[in-house]
């Protein structure tokens, strides 16, 4: 008797990861509406406790932070991965009247996959109609921007980017921030929809938003906006499954990824991608040459323009928002890598180098570049011009191969802009600190200020296992100098495929780098979160301190390792120093003491110190006198009961 | 019937932590001898496998790295914590004929503790005689240096610091390093004992080496030497024991701590410290005001110069190598902290501020500064002039309180140098990236280039749980700008007392920051380790890659998570991309291919590309022709069997 085994369909079991949808403590999702009812921009609002009575009893306004976690943390939405997310942008795209729905997919490969019944159990089953530009129409955000049109996407983005500045102004604390140093960026006092439009029109920013990805929450990548972070997911021949990859998406965006790249090189790349895009509220990037290589069974010499072209269309019709294209790996640059310590470390770059040498021909991505543009503009896919010749070791940094390619990418940017294709430029790699600025300055010059999107850079090679840190240093610096988006690096870099924990650590590290850069650039309102957290710390509002942090779970659990009881959350000390030695506790005693001295202060100290010091003291004295009066009015009890 | 309970003595159970003494894989400890038989400088030598036949079959010379792990990783030494380490420097100190042995301790408190039988079970029992300078003698390294004397300590240090440069020269690779950018430092081509002497004489470097700490392996802190890292240990009222603290010492130095500060604020500070120093091969720093505060039961107002003086002597006679002294917290600066977001975050700073206000008097550490100098010079204890008013939040960075104190520290440095006391200056704190350089430049100006020793700085406040990273960014930058030593920060910063894992992660993060700075400064030979590791990576010598890293255990285990078999250690791929997509594997194929083209290359490509490109190709062609010949001679098989 033969057994009939019914294979379980993936779509029967697709549940969203519980950890990814857990609400953030102390927070709620709010929406700010724009000029139309369907422009609703999500933000996270963190509520704070009042300052304790004995410390001044003030109300602490809630803090709004940029929110990349999407519908997954919206308590009003029930997530069903099998259905995908709501098509938020559908009406906006419809209203532009420049696209049509296709009755079938345009890609040969996509049609083959669709007919293969063996793949049924892996398939995302929800039927979706594919869009494409009407003949002769260009549907990129850059095209609209150049025509003076402010799209709903642009308005959405302006609200999103302007959030911190608005709160700071509303709270009257806009000036309570260090003036930054931004090396000639043009960060305005207010991010308006018109400013967004002008940045996109001139190519200094991009809005990755394929017309076939209506589910996404629009975001912008550009030097004059908040620094963004990309997280990578994707299986390989040696690991991972579709469920695991979707989980990494929801997990990565929970912690702050602004875009996600699906770098799968293993099985069922097409089906995996469909699940990811349909459930992604952030832009998705890919490297199409990987799938093209799979189609020729890993034999790089068998790649061709035709196969690649079909792959571009297949992926564009699924909704990929940006493509990494290694069109700058020119035949003449390949020998320049011969003396390198680590040769060509980019997967795409090494694949194209192999093809070039095998065929004795120029890179087909370069020779067919304008053909690629024709495809991109029909769907609004953005370019991420790949740095196939980036340095993979400190020794190779800033060499002729790397810079030669960068010059070619500059040349290609001009061509892309001729077609109104939104374009960003990928960057290194491994670069010691003192050579980082040269990279940024050269890229600005060569590429007409198109956004720069770097992988780190790693500032030393000697710490495998810690490359999120070696690269976090370089990433913070290059973002300060002008880099628009940072591609994260996890602790597993150079060693293996990252798991969920690695993804989180990588994202948090890169959010740190991005925010440190926003502060250094003086991005208006960026210091508000730091100030709120430090104030909470100083006032021993432990829960507020945790909740305002990038990772409240970890902060809370670290604290609880040595002081787990709830009573410790109002304690005016922690286990680092204990109650006698806590400097913050003592500082508050100092202030109380100084306030109580009041008007006597200057007289007594005048004798001790001499006239000059007294002058400085008097300025503060008035404030202290007021505080002293307040304290006396409330009683002088200093601490809450533990 | 009464039970007689014999309390177990700590000294009966004191075993060294096994994990700390495990040999480093692929490594052995070597010693380089100086001009006398007892100048034996330890280094770690990492052996590397030969490059595989098919990749060129070359021998890879062993790599020597600076070794802070001390006798703990010397297979020829049996560690007995109860006996302490060998007194390596004893003869050197004897030979100077300027010290005498005391018959009893000079400190009242120390004598009290010694007589207290209840402490017997905690005491380090090994009898040791205390040294002090003969009357009228000054025994500091700076004093000797100013007299033109090169001490054995200076020679030892020169050998230690010169190691990388020597190997690079020996291997003929000294020029294979990016020229650095060092902002006006004076890093010489060769570190000679005379150079060490001159840096110490002018105060630009210090050699912390108390005459009562003969067990230490001398090291130097200065801008023109390798950037150093300090790790903190120490109990608090809420945690840890003597065994745990000694374990943190051996563990922290295993991973790279150049000095250790014992910041205990809990029980039995005196006894804990004795165990630590007797077993420490690295300089030990303390903050004497902590213990002084314990002696007055945590009531800062009850502190006095007399109690503090006795504490200094007590600790100097135990062998503490440097004291953090908050002599710059002047009464007139305290009100300047009134409007800060986080007030005074330094424990010592807040204690002194409280004392000043309570007594309406100037800080006694300031008023008695020259008395402190008299004590320091009798034992060669170095100053670490404390930054009691450092900023504890981004908002407070670079404010008047912080810079006022820095100016006073500059004034005090001059006084210290009058007494030939070796002096370094402590620094911040929390500083956004764009304000970091100002700190470094001001410190160089105000303090006559005395070494700077910062805590980070943290570049943003928003990531409790990850402050080793927020500060690792700032630390790397300020070290590049000229900071000489970095005080580490662990993931537990702001949240609680760090455990062993936190100590390791903090140390590794700061070794990364220090080395990234050495590279950026162009420290001669510093790139050798990066180059060796990257070469091993490129050639798939996995074990070599792990062993050359700062943490080979973690690198190896991360790799093994997805590819655990031994066969994977010769695999030409890892689980990140798998065999088809591995860029390094493909690059090697590219090189093989290019080499096999040989002389045909220029002819064929000339047609495809035109004359100009061919000119570039020809340069490389000769090399490729040679390689092609080599490959053919060896057979053209590319990969080892997996």
From TrEMBL, chains A, B:
The keyword Zinc applies. Signal peptide: none annotated. Residues 23-100 form the ThiC-associated domain. Zn(2+) binds at residues 430, 494. Pathway: Cofactor biosynthesis; thiamine diphosphate biosynthesis. It catalyses: 5-amino-1-(5-phospho-beta-D-ribosyl)imidazole + S-adenosyl-L-methionine = 4-amino-2-methyl-5-(phosphooxymethyl)pyrimidine + CO + 5'-deoxyadenosine + formate + L-methionine + 3 H(+). Keywords: 4Fe-4S, Iron, Iron-sulfur, Lyase, Metal-binding, S-adenosyl-L-methionine, Thiamine biosynthesis, Zinc. Its cofactor is [4Fe-4S] cluster. Gene3D superfamilies: 6.10.250.620, Radical SAM ThiC family, central domain (3.20.20.540). [4Fe-4S] cluster binds at residues 574, 577, 582. Homodimer. Catalyzes the synthesis of the hydroxymethylpyrimidine phosphate (HMP-P) moiety of thiamine from aminoimidazole ribotide (AIR) in a radical S-adenosyl-L-methionine (SAM)-dependent reaction. This is Phosphomethylpyrimidine synthase. It comes from Simiduia curdlanivorans. The lineage of its organism: Bacteria, Pseudomonadati, Pseudomonadota, Gammaproteobacteria, Cellvibrionales.
